[in-house]
Design brief:
Layout: H1 5-27, H2 31-36, H3 48-53, E1 58-62, E2 74-80, E3 85-92, E4 98-106, E5 111-115, H4 122-143
Antiparallel strand pairs: 1-2, 2-3, 3-4, 4-5
Helix pairs in contact: 1-4
């Protein structure tokens, strides 16, 4: 019998958190250590932000009521799509600061989430801050 998303979500979250931390740690290494690193042939870009842009599918905004029973809008860092799929959902305040982050793992009419503690997962917090800053700058540029 296949496991339900609720049984898999914590394991999948930890795998994603480890990869995101690995991206940041990779760019902290000198060139010699980078070339010997397991991620060396998988990462593109000269710094962590560039690599994060290529990790996953998109970072976008999901407006309130886009989906049934979804009263709040959120930013979505979609990492994979289909069955299964996974994403981070970032709920922000009026100043575009994260107030709640959830990691979702979904597979055909089944889904489960874990709440992400950004104090514990500082690399995820840094990645989210990078994307939110980019979104804010893009929004500000569109208004000009």
């Amino acid at each position: 019998m296949e496991k339900k998303c609720a049984e898999l979500v914590l394991e999948k979250f930890k795998e994603r958190a480890e990869i995101i931390e690995g991206i940041y740690r990779y760019y902290d290494l000198d060139e010699a250590k980078q070339s010997a690193h397991v991620l060396h042939n998988q990462l593109t870009g000269d710094w962590a932000g560039e690599a994060l842009e290529n990790y996953g599918l998109c970072f976008d905004y999901v407006a309130p009521h886009t989906f049934t029973d979804q009263p709040e809008g959120y930013y979505r860092w979609q990492l994979s799509w289909g069955g299964p799929s996974d994403e981070f959902r970032i709920y922000v305040d009026d100043m575009c600061r994260p107030v709640r982050v959830e990691y979702w793992f979904m597979d055909w009419w089944d889904g489960a989430k874990v709440d992400v503690n950004l104090e514990v997962y500082s690399y995820i917090e840094a990645a989210i801050a990078y994307f939110l800053e980019y979104e804010f700058l893009a929004y500000e540029g569109a208004e000009a």
